[in-house]
Every structure is written in C-alpha cells, then in structure tokens.
Specification:
3 helices; about 55% helix; globular; ACP-like_sf; about 80 residues; Acyl carrier protein; PP-bd_ACP
C-alpha cells in the first residue's frame, strides 16, 4: 500500500465528518475546530483498525493527527517499524 492509498483512505474517512468543506491534505483539523476530544479518540480508533497499527501513549501527540499528511506520515512510520521488527 502506498502513502497515496493511505492518504485517500484517511481523506475519505475525515470528509464524512466535515460536510461542505473540501479538506486539503495539509489542513490542520484541530485549528479548523473540527475535532472534539471524542472525535480525537474516534480518530485514534480508526487509525488502529484501518491500518492495523497500535497507537501507544507516546504516539498521542497532536502533531501525529493534525492533517491527512500528518496521519499518513504517522501510519507510514508505524508500519515501517512493525515491518522492520
């Protein structure tokens, strides 16, 4: 799976929650005010289930979840580490 595939999946998931907004891959969903604490946890659960990665306590940095691009980079790092182990 390529990062473009990951970005596409992430974008498809996110835009369901932000109707009427064309979300760019570098837009900060926290700054835009689209994320509540409940949605943040939902996003973590989505990432774990969709990509088969474990989001650990030290991964719970906003920078990992701010945008489509940030989420893709986070998922790619997690998958690369898992495959190297």
């Amino acid at each position: 799976m390529t990062t473009q595939d990951n970005k596409s999946k992430i974008a498809t998931y996110l835009v369901r929650f932000f109707p009427g907004h064309e979300l760019r891959e570098d837009e900060d969903i926290f700054t835009l005010g689209f994320v509540s604490s409940m949605f943040a946890m939902q996003l973590v659960t989505y990432v774990e289930h969709e990509f088969g990665v474990e989001v650990e306590n030290e991964d719970l940095e906003l920078d990992n979840f701010r945008s489509i691009r940030a989420l893709d980079a986070f998922v790619t790092r997690k998958l690369t580490r898992a495959n190297a182990a």
